[in-house]
Amino acid sequence: MISVRSLLSSLLACALVPSSAQAAINWPDPPELTPLTCTAGTTAAPVQLAPTSALPAGVSGRVAFSAILFGTDGQALQEMTLGNVNELHPLASAFKPLVVEAVLRDIDTGKLKLNTLLETTPGRRSIESYPAGKNSIATLARRALVPSDNTASDLLHLTAGVTRVAQEVHDRSPCTSVLHTTKAIWALQSGLLPEVLPDPVRDAPTYAALPFRTRLDLARLAVLGSQRLTGPEVEAALDVYFKGPTYSPAMELGVQNTSTARAFARLQAQMLPGATLKPATRALFRSWLSDKESCCRPKNPTFKPAFWGVKSGSGWRMLTMSGAATLKDGRTVGYALLIDQADPQVAEQTERWLRPLAVWIDAQLLRLTR
């Protein structure tokens, strides 16, 4: 087995080789224990509550739900859980508010402006629909959060700095990894970055198990490598992978941005209300997260806080729903519902669960905050 240092040196050297060259990489043997769970923090466990009802009919897969109520002093008071809340799950698009918040902090410091224009180039375009030409940061931020546009998110992610966002998220929440742009995720998963993952199915679990600092360097190579590809190239290869015989749920844990339900619920409570932002950017951030066009709150909620921001995500056999709310008495609640390995094999089918699950979450939050 080669050392991690030797591996990284080899990979960095490979990054300098033209993309047409297939440089051989000596990948280390997988660790005996792949980290599938994560716990962090030593604070006392809050009072535990059980959900008021079962999940809506038809919802399937590996499910974890955590909703945590915090007092005005930031102390966790109560938690409602379902499934293994310390088990890692892919986040799908639920990570995007972390990217937008980082950019808004740069606006607060004067490094950027809301009207700063960012250009969609072929290398920066991700999969699916995209904002063509040049668009302002304000336009892209709303697109990243409300319709969950992948290219808008990636443009902001690259502007904020992928390594910087990854480090800041890790510092806030050691169980949460936001290492990749959406395009890098899909390029890795579809096998288009052999300089990082020579054999994606075989090597993704090892990639996930490497130390954070090593993954950070490799993720930088993945993000750079993905910019040599066009969005349509990645999307076409991804369709072949998802519909082919090599699809593996372990791949999501290897290359997606990940967290646990408990860690992500805590992070949502800390971040979504916009406490780190100045009043003007905080108001914008909250307006996008609570936009009526965004998903997902019930049409007629019983839970009626002063502020309720949400972000969902979906993908091949996965669905994520997360959010945070500030109550009128100053308490805060953060939650995360993470589902992968679902029976439906296309996003359009799992997305049909969004509305019934929004009603279910509404009931749980009402019970938790009484």
From TrEMBL:
The keyword Lipid metabolism does not apply. Residues 1-23 form the signal peptide. GO terms for molecular function: hydrolase activity. Keywords: Hydrolase, Signal. Residues 85-333 form the Beta-lactamase class A catalytic domain. It comes from the Bacteria. SUPFAM superfamilies: beta-lactamase/transpeptidase-like. InterPro entries: Beta-lactam/transpept-like (IPR012338), Beta-lactam_cat (IPR045155), Beta-lactam_class-A (IPR000871). PANTHER family: BETA-LACTAMASE, SLR0121 PROTEIN. This is Serine hydrolase. It comes from Deinococcus oregonensis.
